[in-house]
Amino acid sequence: MEHKQFKGHVILLPYPSQGHINPLLQFAKRLASKGVKSTLATTHYTVNSICAAHIGVEPVSDGFDEGGFSQAGNVDFYLKSFKEEGSRSLSQLIQKFKDSSTLLPVWCMTRFCHGLLMWQSSKGFMELLSLPTLPLCVASFLASIMAGLLCR
């Protein structure tokens, strides 16, 4: 199957709260308008509340798929679970795109600059995926796309 002429495919992973999801969703829309396939990866609990034309929305697990943060009970427990379950399910999502003959493989992952999700940019995790990751610094990210540094 022939893919629409995309300049790349980016997964965007926000911290799962409205103040973090919405800015990345708006950024994903902007990327899509420039020809970059964008997939917002968010928790199972929040995935059904997001609907955006031309943007893929895929679930990842935080370990609390039925109730999200409120199901966890405390921040430390939630973040530990999100690190473990999020790493596993994000890896599976990226592999799904890589293995598919009809889906465009992921070329880059970005995240909103948030210290609570630093696990996703750890050297071991990203080496395992063989995938560059960038904290969301919009100017440098767009410059990298325009310079062809994120396209294969």
UniProtKB/TrEMBL annotation:
Pfam families with a match to the protein in the record: Glyco_transf_N
Entry-linked SUPFAM superfamilies: UDP-Glycosyltransferase/glycogen phosphorylase
Keyword Transmembrane attributed: yes
Alphabetically ordered keywords of this record: Glycosyltransferase, Membrane, Transferase, Transmembrane, Transmembrane helix
Annotated Glycosyltransferase N-terminal domain residues: 10-45
A GO molecular-function descriptor: quercetin 7-O-glucosyltransferase activity
Record protein name field: Glycosyltransferase N-terminal domain-containing protein
